[in-house]
Write a structure and sequence with these properties.
With about 375 residues, the protein is mainly α. It has 16 helices and six strands.
Length: about 375
């Protein structure tokens, strides 16, 4: 275990070793105990120095040995981990640098940013340790468990966030396993915490009309973004990649390339009449086909913007309309799915949302969003 700096446990437990000591008498030797990860216990290690004949030379050798062993133990060395077997003594910082390079090669921008952020937080956590882990073999269940507790308790994050970090820790372990730095995934023994339902709520019909009226007067280009989310269910990151050439005015469709979609498959969704009218009013199709639909100022342009532009603008709108935080930009998708499922059926909503299974669509239609079929209202029962 590698606890926090304010940990009050015995030094031998905190450091996972006891300091080397010289023993004299019939036998002269230097000994210490060190944690053996294979058995989960402290084990004693002895170095005999009886073979040195002169007493003064024995003391000199003992002093040198104690100094060298102490330095290695403080750096995370263990006599019970065989570097030749599992490359466990690879420097942890070097391994994390390689993992960062691996992240930088990931296809999806959102994933790269998410994983890089979590790696930065993990490095921050390592600096809080009494003894900073030096080698990859020290990436064990105890370290990860302490990290997740630090995320959940010290940083006051939700169980959902803590569980997301657990998933990230598992992916980092997989990266280490593939490179034979460690043999097993240390996160397997750590369970997820029970999560509370998401706080995000769909917008009511009244709120949707209020939003439409407000944006019609203040920001028509952001109104287009909101209608795209409400009618097409295209995810914010996917919206940020859409180009005008992806839109077919003739067929009233939008093409989502597989390289930018969440499920890595090409997708085609219908373009509602309200969206088409607004696009024509804004002159969207007067721009070149290689322009992004939402660029600087939420207008068509050459530069691709981060999906955060939708959320940042939404916070301003939410403040102006005095809505609570449970109403988010992605609430437009929840609202659209609910309204389409109620009007045209859940299968239509499933296909527009590009869900592979109705059970996925149902997750958006739980509780007060669940479609009510008129047949159930007028059913003639026998009770």
């Amino acid at each position: 275990m590698y606890p926090y700096k304010n940990d009050s446990r015995p030094r031998s437990i905190i450091l996972q070793f006891t300091y080397p000591r010289l023993h004299t008498g019939k036998s002269w030797y230097v000994d210490f105990t060190s944690y053996d990860p294979a058995i989960g216990e402290m084990r004693r290690k002895k170095y005999m120095i009886n073979s040195i004949s002169k007493i003064s030379d024995r003391r000199k050798r003992a002093t040198e040995l104690i100094e060298a062993l102490t330095k290695r133990l403080r750096a995370g060395w263990s006599p019970w981990v065989n570097v030749d077997d599992n490359r466990g003594y690879t420097d942890l910082n070097d391994a994390l640098d390689k993992y960062q390079a691996y992240i930088n090669k990931m296809d999806k921008d959102k994933t790269r940013k998410s994983y890089s952020s979590r790696l930065t937080i993990f490095r921050e956590f390592l600096k809080t340790r009494v003894v900073t882990p030096k080698y990859v073999y020290q990436y064990d269940t105890a370290l990860i468990s302490d990290f997740l507790d630090w995320i959940h308790l010290d940083r006051d994050c939700s169980p959902r966030t803590r569980n997301n970090y657990r998933g990230w820790c598992s992916s980092l372990a997989s990266f280490f396993i593939e490179r034979e730095y460690i043999a097993v995934n240390p996160t397997e023994k750590i369970k997820n915490l029970t999560e509370s339902p998401k706080i995000r709520q769909p917008l009511s019909g009244r709120m949707l009309r209020q939003l439409s009226q407000y944006l019609s007067e203040k920001n028509l280009h952001y109104l287009l973004a909101c209608r795209m989310e409400y009618y097409t269910f295209i995810r914010p990151t996917e919206l940020s990649y859409l180009k005008i050439s992806d839109i077919s005015l003739k067929n009233q469709t939008v093409f989502i390339p597989g390289e930018v979609s969440k499920n890595r498959r090409d997708g085609l969704v219908g373009l509602n009449d309200e969206i088409v009218k607004l696009m024509l009013d804004l002159g969207v199709f007067n721009h070149p086909g290689d322009y992004y639909l939402f660029s600087d100022g939420m207008r068509p342009g050459k530069n691709r913007m981060s999906s955060e532009i939708f959320r940042r603008e939404w916070k301003k709108i939410r403040k102006a309309l005095k809505w609570s935080k449970e109403y988010q930009f992605y609430s437009l998708k929840d609202s659209g799915l609910r309204d389409l499922a109620n009007a045209e059926g859940i299968v239509i909503a499933r296909d527009q949302a590009r869900h592979t299974d109705i059970s996925t669509t149902n997750k958006y239609l739980q509780g007060r969003n669940t479609p009510i079929h008129s047949e159930t209202i007028h059913f003639n029962g026998v009770l």
